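Hey,
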Amino acid sequence: MKALRIVFMGTPEFAVGILDAIVKQKQHEIAAVITAPDKPAGRGQKVKFSAVKEYAVAQNLTLLQPANLKDEVFLAELKALNANLHIVVAFRMLPKAVWAMPELGTFNLHASLLPNYRGAAPINWAIINGETKTGVTTFFIDEKIDTGAMILSETIEISESENAGELHDRLMHLGSRTVLETLALISEGKATTTIQQDTSDIKTAYKLDRENCKIDFTKNTTEIYNLIRGLSPYPTAYCNFKDGEEQWNVKIYDVRKEIVAHDNPAGSVIATKKEMKIAAHDGYIHILSLQFPGKKKMLVHELLNGMTFSEKTLAF
């Protein structure tokens, strides 16, 4: 068994779960942690640390936050750490000078069953596209994004009611186990790889933006339902409500679907004192929680206690 001296690279909470599993296993040395530079966030523009930085500081791990991964000073610091393996989880594209540096290479954990859902938002898109299973894959990094030779992959089922936050947490736990298994194989010299095979029907995990997070109520009920749960709790699906002269931009968090024939135009909002549903062409989306501008996220009955809508209210 070869002793592993690891540089870990990551930014969000998902990466923290994997790093924590490595630290707690106490079988390998973390030479350093690399994460994104601090940046101002929110209305007050307060400086925000990445989740990985917060964890690294709490664990007293050596921390680097390079703005430029090709910077010669950073590369010299990285080389001086004398790591023989780099691990990347939800970070950014690395230059070859970084990923080719360690003796044993650099591997990435990706939250999909590669080659499907390469890209920035694999957890979200698996749900949005109505997949019934997904998983995680470890692979050695190469020049392109998420295309390297695969080491291990593990599969889990996606339930019909699961949202992106719930799937994120389950994949984080699955990813932790898969990374530890990958480390064992590498340290024992038993890691074998499988080349990814590209086909014409590979699905992509496109970056989420304002356009692909907007709800289109002319689509079928199941498509709308999958979009909303695939974006909940973050970055959140949204639509506009229009009632007479008033219009609001509304975030939709939790819903249930009802497939049923009806005569209401797509986007019609039907609200009582206790419930709200929005018509799609083949059923209804029942709103369970949402957020209006300037208000906190709330259950729909809490909103309806203080707000009424006319029969002509439309969601679009």
